[in-house]
Design a protein that fits this description.
With about 230 residues, the chain is of the alpha/beta class. It has 6 helices and 8 strands; from the N terminus they run E-E-E-H-E-H-H-E-H-E-E-H-E-H. Strands 1-2-4-3-5-6-7-8 form an 8-stranded mixed sheet, sandwiched between helices. Helix 3 crosses helix 4. The chain starts with a strand and ends in a 7-residue tail after the last helix.
């Protein structure tokens, strides 16, 4: 089942989103899915649908409030205009809370811009029980490792010029040095290798990363009842 709807942020404001959930599983684990810089498009809704098929309640918050684009320059402009701290601490945190109202543990995952916001969620959304970031990192100074409690997974491409491997390696070292649970994977792939509608789609890397994400959430959230 899937539907568009609203949920309440911690500040009381409403945020729109796309809800997808398995039949008859209102208390199954939940996952918040965070969009790329294009907006909440059908590809991201498809991720939520796949999670629902795997037995998870999924919610993708609409960070652009209905705005979409196919143009990279416009997408960059929208991303640069987004208040990342507000998106993480209000939209994403509100989405986690909305899923937790039904019970069960809740994870966060995101792609590109959403990957960066997923890492911020590990810092600023203490209710999140697990975080999986796909080829996205926020600025180093925003990653306050000391505040992270949830296990963090990452999926990154060796050929990614947007998220250089040195930053991935550095964050992994910082997490490990603080005794934080981290599960980082690297692929012979470019940025956005998991977007089946994009030019950099790499099917085998995407398949591996998806299965690893499901295994990660299965371990830390509990396994959904696949349909």
């Amino acid at each position: 089942m899937a539907a568009n709807g609203n949920f309440t942020r911690p500040d009381g404001k409403q945020c729109p989103g796309y809800f997808a959930w398995p039949e008859g599983s209102s208390d199954s684990p939940g996952v918040v899915v965070i969009q790329e810089w294009w907006g909440l498009n059908d590809q991201i809704e498809g991720v939520a649908d796949r999670l629902a098929a795997a037995g998870y309640r999924a919610l993708a918050p609409d960070l652009y409030r209905g705005e979409l684009t196919l143009e990279a320059e416009e997408a960059r402009h929208r991303m640069e205009g987004l208040d990342f701290m507000d998106a993480a601490s209000q939209d994403v945190r509100g989405a986690v809370a909305a899923l937790k109202q039904e019970g069960g543990r809740v994870g966060v995952m995101g792609y590109c811009m959403g990957g960066a916001l997923s890492v911020l969620a590990a810092v600023y959304v203490p209710e999140a029980d697990a975080v999986s970031a796909w080829y996205g990192l926020p600025p180093e100074e925003a990653i306050v490792v000391e505040r992270i409690r949830a296990p963090v997974q990452g999926h990154f491409g060796y050929r990614d010029s947007i998220v250089p491997m040195r930053r991935v390696d550095d964050l992994e070292r910082r997490l490990e040095a603080r005794g934080r649970s981290c599960d980082f994977h690297r692929y012979d792939a470019d940025h956005a290798f998991g977007n089946e509608q994009g030019a950099n789609y790499q099917p085998e890397a995407a398949r591996q990363a998806w299965q690893r994400t499901l295994d990660f959430f299965g371990e830390h959230l509990g396994r959904g009842q696949a349909v």
